[in-house]
């Protein structure tokens, strides 16, 4: 649109102005105090007029408190400035004149004054020092007079000023019964050990030994040897996820080329834990310790411990129904009851009989342990005693209309009134996290150094891994970390140092109605079990506080006791398709932990039948088999497959990727609404799908530019994600093509050698990529390739080359290759 370039010019203009103001910013604390003093004086002039006009007694108590507070603040500010003015005076006073509650003991003071005045220091200076000291003591007490100071006492004795519009403050209440009790069952001895060690930094090996699970290492290994299935229960942070797979590794479970798998409901958890464990074991990620999540795999033949999403392990059942690669499988976070982990448990239950050597560990929070034990036929539950300090729970007095805003206010309330300790905020998704992060950052910038630093760390699934690791960075002294997390931080990830939890009590859930066949992501209230789990995150390093942005009444009357298992609330078409492709034909007989409703199953069958994935007898068709290979909703898989016959695969992939971003694609800032709308209109193709496509293609033509996005009011981040997803989908269609090629051309596969040439996977033949191939100039050269033909000219050349992953070969043609041991 013609309007867009104007914006650019305008922005440039304001840039120079900004620079000027920047140098004038009152970073000097004295300047700030001075300007505060002026402000207060002015404010009080008005307030005093109010008193004159209406009379003190006619003011509301809130108004009275406000005036008292302002007066006290004024005198405090004055004394601060005076103190500064006499900076060189020896401002050291014997503590003995001051009683414990900050009062000056007049009598003692007289005595001391006498003795001091006989010394050599000039009495004038001393007297004023006394006055200052008194003032400081007094000002400590002023704090309590603040009209909104009802939250929590300030133990540090420091005086903080309120930095927020006080009308924005969130009011909390608590009663003595609102406490999450500590679960301190760890020996006193060990406790003390840990405290003494605090002074010097611990090595990784030492840290491993301080984890609660370490004490039970031998017992655990024994129990695993003795029982094919074991349920493990323990507080979050006790070391289940990071340590148990290592214990298995250390006690030889990964010998004979077998692997240890540990599944996670979330991709972020799989990658971050793998990173941590690789570090603990002192190996490179992707070698002995690896991970596998959708569209991203870092593991190799020598991988011993593999963290993966539960969905990935489920897919492995397709090519390897007995999961023969693994000697032990840990289904972690089983209490979350994701559809994939539920189905995995059902499948594993069948596999156990055929694989007596296989060990299955199921780790769960306390809530579901019995249920798992019953499901596998009364298997033992191993309880790892953990440690948790008490957590005080605060509720809002009335429901919060805007919980993001309330959470932001609460962050600053904590930051300005509470002693050190990091904050963890539970939000429902990336969009909320990003908007809160922006808002917090803006406010911090405005406040400059009038508050100590806030280190804001977001964590959600789509965040690049390097940034995910940032939440584990230690908080620098004098600043406070604020972690903005999805419910990934509920149990899967443990962040040390959290003392405060802010919980709006919401979660984003996929909800499906079998009646209407509609599926939607909705933000709803969490369960009691979830909010209690969240509160517990505050009690890991010491006593903590949890601020719930809902009322005590809501907790007792509105929240359901436990989360609803995913399988009971989502569209079952993907699961049915998957189970059928795994050869489970009688779904009604399949053992589910909680069986989905018959209506739900029937609806899924109907849908799959109408998509052509099933025939009239309910058997999988060839199309259905292909569809099951895509990690996509069956409807979208069908669309993608059909696109090949219409020659529009690239466009369809883009449209699908863009559809996922539709809600956050365009934005319109208030001041530039008209411009934004006209920019949006310029993409209008008369329908949404083609409009999305147009946006993407124009962005592509603009070299994927960021400036282009801001000119056209399109979210750069959304487009970037769509680009990744589109590429990934290309990748997956490439994977599908590769797998198909492997099924016939498995004799034509070769692997890169250290000399830079290739060697056939099956024979000792060496070869190179033909110069005519697009892959001949690619750096670094692909590791494993499949070729159409081998031609001999000056040497052996491969022609028609495609890069593949070695693991696909073993999966597609397991009979032909046996993996090297
Ligand atoms: P659990 O599975 O029982 O909840 P974990 O094994 O996940 O416990 O965590 C044990 C400890 O390892 C935690 O206290 C945490 O501090 C530490 N930890 C886990 N992941 C990381 C990481 N990526 N970076 C640093 N420390 C981590
Ligand atoms: Mg864990």
SSE diagram, text form:
Elements: H1 4-24, H2 29-54, H3 61-85, H4 106-117, H5 123-142, E1 172-173, E2 179-180, H6 188-197, H7 204-210, H8 217-226, E3 229-234, H9 240-250, E4 259-264, H10 267-281, E5 289-293, E6 296-298, E7 305-309, H11 310-319, E8 326-331, H12 339-354, E9 359-364, H13 369-375, E10 381-384, E11 391-396, H14 403-417, E12 422-426, H15 430-447, E13 454-459, H16 465-469, E14 480-485, H17 488-491, E15 498-503, E16 506-513, E17 518-525, H18 528-536, E18 544-548, H19 552-557, H20 573-581, H21 598-611, H22 622-629, H23 634-645, H24 649-659, H25 673-681, H26 688-701, H27 706-711, H28 716-745, E19 749-752, E20 758-760, E21 766-769, E22 784-792, E23 796-803, H29 806-812
Parallel strand pairs: 3-9, 3-10, 4-7, 4-8, 5-7, 8-9, 11-18, 12-14, 12-15, 13-14, 15-18, 21-23
Antiparallel strand pairs: 1-11, 2-11, 5-6, 16-17, 19-20, 19-22, 20-21, 22-23
Describe the overall structure:
This protein is α/β, with parallel strands linked by helices and 821 residues long. It has 29 helices and 23 strands. The strands form 4 sheets. Strands 1, 2, 11, 12, 13, 14, 15 and 18 form an 8-stranded mixed β-sheet that branches. A hairpin with a 2-residue loop joins strand 5 and strand 6. Helix 3 (61-85) runs antiparallel to helix 5 (123-142), helix 20 (573-581) packs across helix 21 and helix 23 (634-645) packs antiparallel against helix 24 (649-659). The longest helix has 30 residues, at 716-745. Mean pLDDT is 80; it is low at 1-27, 87-97, 115-128, 137-165 and 185-197. The protein binds adenosine-5'-diphosphate and magnesium ion. Magnesium ion is lined by residues 240-241, 332, 492.
């Amino acid at each position: 649109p013609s309007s867009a370039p104007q914006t650019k010019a305008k922005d440039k203009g304001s840039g120079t102005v900004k620079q000027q103001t920047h140098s004038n910013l009152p970073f000097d604390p004295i300047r700030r105090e001075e300007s505060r003093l002026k402000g207060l004086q002015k404010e009080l002039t008005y307030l005093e007029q109010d008193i004159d006009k209406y009379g003190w007694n006619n003011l509301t108590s809130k108004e009275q408190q406000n005036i008292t507070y302002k007066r006290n603040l004024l005198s405090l500010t004055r004394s601060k400035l005076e103190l500064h003015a006499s900076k060189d005076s020896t401002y050291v006073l014997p503590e003995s004149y001051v009683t414990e509650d900050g009062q000056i003991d007049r009598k003692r003071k007289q005595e001391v004054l006498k003795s001091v005045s006989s010394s050599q220091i000039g009495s004038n200076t001393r007297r004023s020092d006394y006055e200052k000291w008194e003032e400081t003591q007094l000002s400590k007490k002023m704090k309590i007079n603040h009209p909104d100071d009802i939250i929590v006492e300030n133990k540090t004795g420091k005086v903080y000023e309120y930095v927020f519009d006080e009308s924005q403050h969130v009011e909390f209440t608590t009663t003595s019964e609102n406490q999450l009790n500590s679960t301190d069952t760890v020996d006193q001895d060990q406790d003390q050990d840990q405290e003494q060690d605090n002074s010097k930094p611990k090595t990784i090996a030492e840290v491993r030994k301080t984890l609660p699970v370490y004490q039970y290492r031998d017992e655990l290994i024994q129990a695993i040897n003795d029982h094919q299935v074991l349920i493990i229960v323990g507080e979050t942070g006790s070391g289940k996820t990071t340590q148990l797979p290592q214990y298995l590794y250390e006690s030889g479970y990964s010998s004979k080329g077998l692997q240890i798998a540990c599944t996670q409901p979330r991709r972020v958890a799989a990658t971050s834990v793998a990173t941590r464990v690789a570090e603990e074991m002192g190996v490179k990620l992707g070698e002995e310790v690896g991970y596998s999540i959708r569209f991203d795999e870092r593991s190799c033949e020598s991988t011993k411990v593999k963290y993966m999403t539960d969905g990935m392990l489920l897919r492995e059942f397709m090519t390897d129904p007995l999961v023969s690669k693994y000697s032990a499988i840990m289904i972690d976070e089983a209490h979350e009851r994701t559809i994939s982990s539920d189905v995995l448990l059902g499948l594993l239950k069948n596999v156990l009989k055929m694989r007596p050597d296989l060990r299955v560990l199921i780790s769960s929070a306390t809530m579901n342990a019995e249920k798992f034990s019953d499901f596998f036929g009364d298997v033992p539950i191993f309880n790892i005693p953990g440690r948790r300090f008490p957590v005080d729970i605060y509720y809002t007095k009335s429901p919060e209309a805007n919980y993001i805003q309330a959470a932001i206010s609460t962050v600053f309330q904590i930051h300005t009134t509470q002693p050190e300790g990091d904050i963890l905020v539970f939000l429902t998704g990336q969009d909320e996290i990003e908007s809160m992060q922006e808002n917090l950052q803006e406010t911090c910038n405005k406040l400059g150094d009038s508050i100590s630093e806030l280190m804001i760390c977001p964590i959600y699934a789509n965040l690049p891994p390097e940034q995910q690791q940032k939440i584990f960075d230690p908080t620098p002294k004098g600043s406070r970390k604020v972690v903005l997390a999805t419910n990934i931080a509920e149990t899967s990830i443990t962040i040390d140092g959290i003392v405060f939890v802010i919980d709006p009590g919401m979660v984003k859930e996929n909800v499906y109605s079998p009646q209407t066949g509609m599926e939607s992501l909705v933000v709803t209230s969490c369960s009691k079990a979830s909010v209690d789990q969240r509160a517990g995150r505050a009690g890991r390093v010491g006593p903590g506080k949890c601020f719930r942005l809902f009322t005590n009444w809501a907790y007792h009357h509105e929240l359901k006791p436990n989360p609803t298992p995913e399988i009971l609330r989502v569209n079952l078409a993907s699961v049915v398709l998957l189970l059928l492709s795994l050869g489970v034909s009688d779904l009604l007989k399949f053992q589910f932990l909680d069986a989905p409703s018959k209506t739900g199953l029937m609806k899924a069958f109907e849908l799959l039948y109408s998509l052509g994935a099933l025939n009239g007898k309910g058997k999988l068709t060839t199309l259905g088999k292909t569809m099951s290979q895509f990690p996509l909703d069956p409807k979208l898989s069908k669309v993608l497959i059909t696109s090949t016959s219409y020659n529009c695969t690239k466009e369809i992939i883009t449209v699908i990727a863009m559809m996922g971003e539709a809600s956050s694609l365009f934005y319109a800032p208030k001041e530039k609404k008209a411009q934004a709308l006209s920019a949006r209109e310029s993409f209008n193709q008369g329908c949404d799908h083609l409009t999305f496509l147009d946006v993407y293609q124009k962005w592509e033509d603009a070299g994927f530019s960021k400036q282009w996005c801001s000119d056209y009011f399109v979210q750069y981040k959304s487009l970037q994600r769509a680009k990744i997803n589109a590429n990934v989908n290309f990748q997956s269609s490439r994977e599908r093509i590769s797998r198909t090629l492997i099924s016939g051309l498995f004799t034509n596969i070769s692997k890169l050698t250290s000399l830079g040439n290739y060697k056939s996977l099956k024979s000792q033949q060496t070869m190179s990529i033909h110069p005519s191939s697009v892959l001949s100039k690619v750096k670094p050269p692909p590791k494993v390739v499949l070729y159409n033909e081998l031609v001999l000219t000056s040497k052996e050349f491969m022609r028609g080359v495609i890069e593949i992953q070695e693991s696909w070969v073993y999966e597609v043609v397991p009979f032909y290759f046996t993996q090297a041991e």
